[in-house]
Amino acid sequence: MTEQQVVLRETRDGVQTLTLNRPDKLNALNFALTEGLVQALKEADADTSVRVVIVTGAGRGFCAGADTREFTVLTPDNQPLVEQRAALTTELQGLVKQMSKPVIGAVNGYAMGGGSGLALSCDLALAGESARFGYPEVKHGIVAAIVMAGLVEHVGRKAAFDLVATGRTLDAHEARQLGMVNRVVADADLLGEARALARQIAAHPVQAMQATKGIFHRVTELPFSEGLKIGQQLNAQMRAFRQTELQS
Length: 248
Ligand code: COA
What we know:
The chain is an alpha/beta fold. It is about 50% helix and about 15% strand. The longest helix is centred in the middle third of the chain and has 20 residues, at about 80-100. Bound molecules: coenzyme A. Coenzyme A binds next to strand 6.
């Protein structure tokens, strides 16, 4: 299967929808799909015709996490491959924060392990009623390691430890209560709602939107007083944005 096929791309009205396309495996992240998604996200970020990106899954799953069938080759006697895989997963889980454009997760069905991490890494996330989340890594004798920082960042310590220690599955409404998604919508409306939200965001001036996303992710990682300082700097710079917009 080519890279184009593992991730489907469709662009309409400045909104690019990326669809993970391994439906028979609930879009489990093997090497090819992970590489394809990283590539597609980078290309969407570089494409000036794209203002907002949606990530969703084909079929009845959003993403079932790491492909457990690849675990047979990810062994200590294959350490270079183990490290290559860890680096690729880390790149994917951190990529949305690095991108200049907003990314919306449209979570249909199962979002497990790295799939839940992917949903949480999106700037906004909508869940269909049938969405299910969970961090079952410990059940496989491994650790929800690369997704841990994003989980704790979103739900806080007690809830995060509950999820990673029990490996239990939670429904869309509990995910909403914990702050893992913004909204729960009917399954049939999921993509339509995600596209409507994307179009609303895409209508804003690009420079202001990108600077908003940029400072947002910076201040989440800074102490308050430093966040305030970079806010002051951006406030002084942003006066030029409107001029650029009026001139274009
Ligand atoms: N890696 C590889 N294949 C996976 C997968 C994964 N993480 N998750 C699901 N699949 C495959 C199944 O093997 C099955 O393939 P098959 O039809 O060739 O046997 C197909 O996707 C459908 O999965 P199935 O288990 O039959 O669906 P279900 O609705 O009964 O259960 C889940 C759904 C998500 C509960 C279940 O598939 C599951 O627990 N998956 C593993 C999730 C996980 O542990 N992810 C983190 C890995 S660290």
